[in-house]
UniProtKB/TrEMBL annotation:
Keywords: Membrane, Transmembrane, Transmembrane helix
Name of the protein described by the UniProt record: Uncharacterized protein
Organism listed in the record: Alexandrium andersonii
Segments traversing the membrane: 248-266
Amino acid sequence: VIWWYHLTVSSGGLLETVGPRRAAVENFNASWMAVSSVGDLFFAGRPVAVTPRPTYDSIFRQDAVNLATGDSFNPSEAFSRANTGAPNPKAYTPSGVAVDSFYVYWGNEENGTAHGSVVKGSSTSSGVLRAVHGAVDSVRGVSVTGTHVFFASPSGIYGVPKTTPTTVEDNTQGLVVAPPTDGSAWDPLALAWDGENTLFLTDAAAGVLYSLPAQNVQAHNLTKFVDSPNVHGLAIIGFSSMASPAHAGPGLLVALVVALACGVGLRE
C-alpha cells in the first residue's frame, strides 16, 4: 500500500499528520515514488494480487483523478520490461523515480550499463525513451532540478545536464562526489532538491543527511546537514505558514524516513 497524509508542522517544528491516512495505491509492493506538478503519482513496484505474481518491478502511474476520487486499485503500467525495448529493456530494475513537467526519470538498480543507468520517458506516453547516463551499473536515488539530473550510486553522486544530447558513457563524466577512499561507511540512497541551490543526500551506512550544491556538475564535497541513524527516504516539503509565529512565512522542511523495527513510515 502507498498511503497519503495531510501534514502540518507543530509549534516545535515536528512534522505531524492530520486526520486519517488514506490509501493512494493498494495491492502493490511499491518502493521509489514521485508526484508530478499535476498530481499524478509515479512509482516503482509490482502488483501482489495477480497470478502469476510478477518477479520484477515496473513504473506505474496513479492519475491525480484516481487519488481525488479514492480509486486506489487502478494505477496504470507506464514503463516495464515489455514496452521499453528489446533485448535490453530500459525499465529493467527501476529505482529512484523523479519527475519534471515533461518527463519521468528512473535509475536501474542492476545492470545499468546494459539497460541504462538513468532513463527518461515521457510522463504522458510510453513511446519516448532515452538513457541519460549509461556508465554506472547500480543506481538508487534520482532527483531532478530545473537544469540537471542527479543520481546516487555506490560509484558516487553524478549529475547530467538535461540538455546533454546523447547518453553519457564515461563513468568519470559528471562525477560530483566520489565515494570515500579511506574505508568510511558509504551507502548513498535518496536525493532531494530544495527547489533552489541545494541537493540533499541520505547515506544509510553513515546514518547522515548531507547537502551539496545543485547548480552544476562540478566536483563538490559533502556537507553534513544532520545525523540521522537508519535514514532511508527523503523529501522536501514546501510550506507557506506554520503553527508557531516563530516559524511563520514561506520556507522548506526536510522530511526523513528512517527504517524502524516495525517498518518504514510516518508517525500518526
